[in-house]
Design goal:
With 167 residues, the protein is of the alpha/beta class. The protein has three helices and seven strands. The strands form two sheets. A five-stranded mixed β-sheet has the order 3-4-5-7-6. A two-stranded antiparallel sheet has the order 1-2. A hairpin with a 6-residue loop joins strand 6 and strand 7.
Length: 167
């Protein structure tokens, strides 16, 4: 049931029996009654005020805070599950001091930015293995594997591939 209220408090009635007979037959598994139920009408508005949609510019405060404040406070950067192909977020790496360690975790290697460590594979597998090695007891229904093989990729000093151990 939709729960977003219109600014004016407009409500509409909807008949749950308003389906045509053919739709009723195809959807006979649904619990339908002849009663009318009330629902709120959706209106256009801000869905999540703290997000930036693809193609939108980040607020100026993002850039200012990164350059004037955050870059000097960060101890470690973890980049997880992105190709970093979209600016301006893809450009953050060049703003940070060279001594700030940067770790990249993703399914595919990032070709245009050099990270200190690349961990290539399924992100959930990599993060689960990191938790295990740190001694953190990660209990989650999605974590159902008994081991991970980690190998240094040939030709690289700090690019590792993570794969589930074969039974």
């Amino acid at each position: 049931m939709l729960r977003q209220m219109a600014p004016s408090g407009v409500k509409r009635k909807r008949s749950t029996s308003g389906l045509s007979m053919s739709k009723k037959r195809r959807q006979s598994y649904e619990d339908s009654t002849d009663e009318e139920e009330e629902y709120d009408v959706a209106v256009a508005g801000v869905m999540k005020p703290d997000i930036t949609f693809f193609g939108e510019d980040l607020p100026e405060t993002f850039h200012k805070r990164l350059v004037e404040h955050d870059k000097d406070l960060v101890d470690l950067v973890l980049v997880i599950g992105t190709s970093l192909k979209v600016a301006p977020v893809s450009e953050f790496s060049g703003v940070l001091p060279a001594e700030t360690p940067q770790i990249y975790i993703s399914r595919e290697p990032c070709q245009h930015i050099d990270f200190d460590i690349d961990m290539i594979g399924e992100c959930d597998i990599i993060l689960t293995e990191l938790c295990r090695r740190l001694g953190w007891d990660l209990q989650h229904e999605m974590v159902k594997h008994d081991g991970v093989d980690v190998h240094l990729q040939e030709g690289y000093e700090s690019r590792f591939s993570f794969k589930l151990r074969s039974p």
